[in-house]
Structure formats: C-alpha cells, structure tokens
Amino acid sequence: MQMMIAEGYRGLSLMVELSLDRILVPLATIVALCGAALIGLQLADMFGIDPSLLHRL
C-alpha cells in the first residue's frame, strides 16, 4: 500500500511540474507585455507625447 501511494505521489508531482511550465510561460509573457505597455505610457507622459498622434508611428 505504501509503495502505491509513493508511486502515485511521484506521478502526480510530475504532472504538476509539467502543468506549471505550461502555465508559467504564457503568464510571464503577459506580465512582460503589460510591463512594457506601462513603461511606454510612462515615457509618453514624461516626454509630453500626445497619445492621439501615436497611430502615425
């Protein structure tokens, strides 16, 4: 019985580890994009760039 519990735990931990990788990569991408957008907005505010003119870039 103890062996079966240990094998089940090992299999479950492997599945959690693989699932965590599949969740962390898109989450890190989203966080990086939001951070870049925030920095861009702060820079536009600092340098006095008119947001209505940004579509011309």
- Poorly predicted runs of 5 or more residues: none
> What is the average of the pLDDT values?
82
SSE run: H
How far do the termini sit from each other? 67 Å
Helix share, percent: over 70%
What structural class is derived from the secondary structure elements?
Answer: mainly alpha
Beta-strand segment tally: 0
Strand content: under 5%
Task: Specify the biggest β-sheet.
Answer: none
Shape field: rod-shaped
Enumerate how many helices there are, as a single number. Answer: 1
Radius of gyration (CA) equals 23 Å
How would you describe what is shown here?
The protein has 57 residues and is mostly helical. 79% of the residues lie in helices and 0% in strands. It has one helix and no strands. It is rod-shaped and about 70 Å long. The model has no long low-confidence stretch (mean pLDDT 82).
Short description:
This protein is mostly helical and 57 residues long. It has one helix spanning 2-46.
Supply database-style keywords.
single chain; 1 helix
Summarize the SSE layout with pairings.
Blueprint: H1 2-46
